[in-house]
């Protein structure tokens, strides 16, 4: 809290917005497309890898990146912003089967999701390292930029020194603590909610791709089987019934296929979004721990983010430090001016957290609105198509 | 086959119809309603029973019958017509819980189904004993009629003596055998088909009333849970999302209820019809055995119909007897005139079986057409209602 401000570097202003403290947002939001995965080789074909094409809307010029480059970017962002901004993990590294088409498609989709989330963040997307990643000019530019980024000294809690709340009053300790507790409670509760939805979603996925379509298929087969038995009766006037019964049976077989394919069309996106949020929410405990040591259950989650040394963070948890401030002044370990500076710095940190939460909430409302709409739209289509198919099957029967 | 014709009794003509030999059908089909189950008591309240009201369309005057009266009727019909006409078993007798509302309702429904099937049969419905059952005038009339029916001597294979094919040629042994084999194959195949459908129907029922609605309920709860977490964010502009998310969650809870209730609305009737046919098809082996000894698997089914002594039937299986005819003539055990009479009688039996099969097929086509239409109609309604509910849930979200 008493560390010096870094000599240079971009300042990060925080403004007072309608919803509370907010980061400074660019006029045009950066966006980028991750596409066109290509297999590349190195060392005369001994080593092969997948390269993705990343095209930012700003330059509209594609650059190539391997997964390990994304991982490098993640590390830089985590070092630089991790104390103030939750940087979600990249999609899992997977060693076996990593050239399988399905896996590559899934990873690309998730890298796209991760990039989009980073693009949307005003602080991350405007940072030098992120700009380098999406728009380096050539190999030399990339190499030089990489070296510079790796030497960046504004890492860890240093980031707070660059944050400058504009036109807002300093917060007192109680306010800071209240906000901190509120965010902690919220992110914990949302984490539970998201995991709950993921659990039932997973079970539903299994049912929809496993036993349920099998059952519809068996119903379809049973109808068709009965139809072919009827057909063998040698009795006159079977045809109208047997044709209709066969059609009904085939309809249920079609429904079986639809049921099995449906999760990919709707549940998939819902699950992916919730998985992303699970990842993001898993970062909050660390971000909040910079402000205040929260009692576990969070400590269990640390395993997700080995790079942030929780022990270190705990020692410098800001609220506890400021609380100790008076004692430190009394025992002349720091002087009253330092104490005032510490409180002021804590206020800055709280504004940063509040700005981050505003950012999180805005995105969350947008994302969940969108994903729920997409989910329900596909569900409606699904049930309507089934109803339509069955209506047609029904019309094949003779009214008696 | 050489038994004398009974002295009196109604003759049962068989005509040559469009679909082959047919029974003589009445101009107006008898129908009756089984309704209004009432608890009655006997012996000063020591014994209690359920009495059903049976109202035939002919008299439109209700008569009361207990289950044991239906059972009595079943025994009479089986004795009298069982060799020529498959008389399906009554719904199971159940001792424990027989006064539970659900059980009474189900039994009544099944008795109704059984009565309807008997009413539809021209031979059964026009028989004295059946007419007595549905339209006895008073207790005395019932008692007298009961005694008379119990003394009826035209039982077992005697029924064939009353059957008179009109304006048709005698069939030769090969034709008879062919028809017999064809019916045997068909009823066996349909029996398998029906059981297959019943099996998958039962599993589907369990899934639809067990794990599936539970899952939809959990999805609904997960959405609502997330909504209430979002609501606690303290962030502005949550309401439009949280309200919509709650509505979506409630919709899935409603869907859960719909899924659980649906089998009663559609699968139930489909299963009941197939159960009826399973019962009916279980009677055919015995009916066919009168004509020809068929190798098992049918022998396993005999347990269903203890009243028809299969051993006896086998001994008098008509086709085998006629085949032995020449030998019997050669050894002077019967004379050639008897042999001719035997062949003629076999022809009559075959006409009876063919008339019965025509009756069966006609009813089967009607029943399956109807039940499939009802099933699909309800299924369409079900999926349309879900789609409609989800469309409404979707409209609650804000387009962004």
What layout of secondary structure does this protein have?
The structure is a homodimer of 400-residue chains.
Chain A: E1 12-17, E2 20-23, E3 32-42, E4 47-56, E5 63-66, H1 67-81, H2 101-120, H3 122-125, H4 128-135, H5 139-151, H6 159-162, E6 163-165, H7 173-209, H8 211-231, H9 239-265, H10 267-281, H11 284-289, H12 310-315, H13 318-330, H14 336-395
Parallel strand pairs in A: 1-6
Antiparallel strand pairs in A: 1-2, 3-4, 4-5
Main sheet characteristics of chain A: 3 strands, mixed
Please bin the fraction of helical residues of chain A: 55-70%
Give the H and E element order of chain A.
EEEEEHHHHHHEHHHHHHHH
Assign an overall shape of chain A: elongated
In angstroms, what separates the terminal alpha carbons of chain A? Answer: 86 Å
**Oligomeric state of the chains?**
homodimer
How many helices of chain A? The count is 14
Strand order of the largest sheet of chain A: 2-1-6
Briefly note the CATH topology name of the domain at 13-141 in chain A.
Answer: PX Domain
Name the CATH class of the domain at 13-141 in chain A: Alpha Beta
> Stretches of chain A where pLDDT falls below 50 for ≥5 residues?
2-8, 294-315
Average of per-residue pLDDT values of chain A: 88
Strand-residue fraction of chain A?
A: 5-15%
CATH level-4 homologous superfamily of the domain at 13-141 in chain A: Phox-like domain
The radius of gyration of chain A is 28 Å
Name the CATH architecture of the domain at 13-141 in chain A: 2-Layer Sandwich
Helix and strand content put the structural class of chain A at mainly alpha
* SS elements, strand count of chain A: 6
| Biggest interface | A-B, 67 and 67 residues
């Amino acid at each position: 809290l008493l560390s010096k401000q870094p000599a240079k570097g971009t300042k990060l202003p925080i403004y007072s917005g309608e919803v509370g403290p907010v980061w400074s947002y660019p006029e045009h939001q950066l966006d980028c497309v991750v596409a066109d995965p290509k297999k590349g080789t190195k060392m005369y074909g001994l080593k092969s890898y997948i390269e993705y094409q990343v095209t930012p809307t700003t330059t509209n010029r594609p650059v190539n990146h391997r997964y390990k480059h994304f991982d490098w970017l993640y590390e830089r962002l985590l070092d630089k912003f991790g104390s103030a901004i939750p940087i979600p993990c990249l999609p899992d590294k997977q060693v076996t089967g990593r050239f399988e088409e399905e896996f590559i498609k899934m990873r690309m989709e998730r890298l796209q999701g991760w990039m989009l989330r980073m693009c949307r963040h005003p602080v991350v997307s405007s940072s030098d390292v992120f700009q380098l990643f999406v728009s380096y000019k050539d190999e030399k530019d990339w190499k030089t930029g990489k070296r510079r980024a790796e030497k960046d000294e504004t890492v860890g809690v240093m980031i707070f020194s660059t944050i400058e709340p504009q036109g807002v009053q300093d917060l007192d300790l109680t306010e800071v603590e209240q906000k901190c507790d509120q965010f902690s409670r919220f992110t914990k509760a949302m984490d539970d909610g998201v995991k709950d939805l993921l659990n039932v979603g997973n079970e539903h996925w299994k049912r929809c791709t496993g036993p349920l379509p099998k059952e519809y298929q068996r119903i379809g087969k049973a109808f068709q089987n009965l139809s072919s038995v009827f057909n063998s009766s040698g009795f006159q006037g079977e045809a109208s019934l047997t044709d209709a019964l066969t059609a009904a049976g085939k309809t249920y077989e079609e429904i079986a296929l639809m049921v099995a394919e449906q999760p990919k069309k709707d549940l998939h996106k819902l699950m992916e979004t919730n998985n992303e949020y699970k990842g993001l929410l898993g970062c909050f405990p660390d971000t909040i721990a910079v402000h205040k040591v929260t009692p576990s259950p969070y400590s269990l989650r640390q395993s997700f983010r080995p790079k942030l040394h929780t022990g270190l963070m705990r020692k410098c948890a800001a609220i506890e430090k400021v609380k100790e401030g008076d004692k430190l002044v009394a025992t002349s370990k720091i002087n009253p001016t330092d104490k005032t500076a510490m409180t002021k710095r804590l206020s800055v940190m709280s504004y940063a957290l509040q700005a981050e939460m505003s950012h999180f909430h805005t995105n969350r409302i947008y994302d969940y609105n969108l994903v729920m709409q997409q989910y329900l739209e596909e569900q409606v289509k699904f049930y309507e198509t089934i109803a339509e198919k069955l209506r047609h099957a029904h019309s094949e029967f003779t009214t008696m």
